[in-house]
Amino acid sequence: MTDGRPPRILFVCLGNICRSPLAEAAMRAAAEREDVPVEVDSAGTGDWHVGKAPDRRAIATAYRHGLDIAGLRARQVGADDFRAFDRLVALDRSNLDTLRAIAPEDGRAQLSLLLDHVAGREGEDVADPYFGEDEGFEQAWRDICAGVGGLLAELAGQPSR
Ligand code: 4NP
User: Fold this and answer.
1) How do the domains of the chain map onto residue ranges?
2) What CA–CA distance (Å, rounded) separates 156 from 108?
3) Distance CA 50, CA 52 (A)
4) Is the CB of residue 126 below 6 angstroms from any atom belonging to ligand 1?
5) What digits encode the pLDDT tens for the residues 110-159?
6) So what CATH class is 8-155?
7) Is 41 assigned a catalytic role?
């Protein structure tokens, strides 16, 4: 429970420059549109890109869908995130495994996989588009929007499935 304050959600991928910044922006936009109070952030399990802007292909994908993510900066997930956030939502199973492995004993955040919030897609990854073609970013965007929609419905107290 969140004691009346908006739930705090952290989206987590590997580099925090492709999928999780898109998820952060998609969630913030959808929550505003549907008037659901929520606080959103994103982080990566890896530290290679800390301080960097999102990948230019992620920026372009967001832009095509009316969102500006160029101002976001990558950061690495840390133990405090398990205490500060209500939910840590991993973009794929590998990153969910990492979160489970590094969760501190007094962490209270609930861990889940983004596509677990979509009926019929439980256990699926949002595929990492970093090493692939541009089309992978559009596919990631579609998956992210599906996951964000399901998660938002849960947060709004509506049945999501
Ligand atoms: P992301 O994509 O986890 O969606 O941000 C990646 C970004 C960078 C790398 C891998 C995935 N990398 O290996 O540097």
Assistant:
1) 8-155
2) 21
3) 6
4) no
5) 999 999 999 999 999 999 999 998 999 999 999 999 999 999 999 998 65
6) alpha beta
7) no
